[in-house]
Amino acid sequence: MLTVERQRKILDTVNSQGSVTVSELMDELEASESTVRRDLQAMDRAGKLIKVHGGAIALGDKYATTDDEVELRKERNKIEKMSIAKYAASLVKDNDFVYLDAGTTTEEMIDFLKCKNAKFVTNAIEHARKLAGRGYTTYLLGGEFKAATEAIVGDEALANLEKYNFTKGFFGTNGLTMNNGFTTPEPKEAMIKREAMKSTKEAYVLMDSSKFDQVAAITFASAEDAVVITDRRDKGKYKGIKIIVVK
Q1: Coil/strand/helix, residue 166
Q2: If you ran DSSP here, which 8-state letter would residue 165 be given?
Q3: Shortest CA distance to 27 belongs to which of 12, 10, 43, 39?
Q4: 66 to each of 17, 29, 130, 155, how far by Cα in Å?
Q5: The pTM is what?
Q6: What distances in angstroms separate CA 182 from CA 110, 134, 206, one per listed residue?
Q7: Which end of the chain, N or C, is less packed with Cβ atoms under 10 Å?
Q8: pLDDT reported for residue 186
Q9: Could you tell me if 100 and 91 are in contact, meaning their C-beta atoms sit under 8 angstroms apart?
Q10: Which residues contact 15 (CB under 8 A, 6 or more apart)?
């Protein structure tokens, strides 16, 4: 197959799916890994797509390598986040042992909690302060403080998590695609999310619909690992993923 034809097929695939992996392109094109990677590099340089680790995403998608400051994120899609948070809070019942991930939507949950006797573990200082202020037994992970997201991360936080088993966990994400799963820009924060989700019986990811088809640098879970709570979905995509749409 000629290079021009192969790259046209790559572009058609990535534009229709939003993202694609190297292995998928190898199967589709019957090409070697080195050939596919060389094509992706050339197409990235030409401004036709965005090459990411393990594949590529369409130009219309956002690829995040850093987190915005908390105060900026709090102002985005506030109405949608409040609806998502209110529904998520209704899932917390008495005697639940809950992991509450750092994030603006997970923080919104706290104001809507109705249960009396749930216990919480969190890696967010502000979450811990608000939970304790409402009378909940709250455990705050120790470790390195990340200013941009006001989260506790690092090896000490990971060690803290190893002893816990959660009935429910509520997580934030910077983006979700079928190929890349749930992603976040920062490796240390991704490790905390990954470890906490592994220790959670029922995992929920809270994300407004702007996060669909977005990719950040680090994958912390596959698209099938959690139930998504969101305000809207594209019915033509994300088949097989558990998604709860709230109004």
Answers
A1: strand
A2: -
A3: 10
A4: 24, 33, 26, 20
A5: 0.73
A6: 23, 30, 11
A7: C
A8: 85
A9: no
A10: 58
Under the banding of pLDDT at 50, 70 and 90, the label for residue 62 is low
Polymer length in residues for the chain = 247
Question: How far is it between the farthest Cα atoms of the chain?
Answer: 67
Beta bridge partner(s), residue 212? 176
User: Kind of pairing, strands 50-52 and 137-140?
Assistant: unpaired
Going from the N-terminus, what domains does the chain have, and what CATH number goes with each? Answer: 3-60 (1.10.10.10), 70-245 (3.40.50.1360)
pLDDT tens per residue across span 160-215: 999 999 999 999 999 999 888 999 988 899 999 999 999 999 999 999 998 998 88
pLDDT in tens, 69-81: 544 454 456 789 9
The HSE-up count of residue 239 (CA atoms within 13 Å, CB side) is 3
Q: Cβ contacts of residue 127 below 8 Å, gap of 6+?
A: 100, 102, 106, 107, 110, 120
Tokens of 31: 């090409």
Spatial distance between the Cα atoms of 32 and 37, rounded to a whole number of angstroms: 9
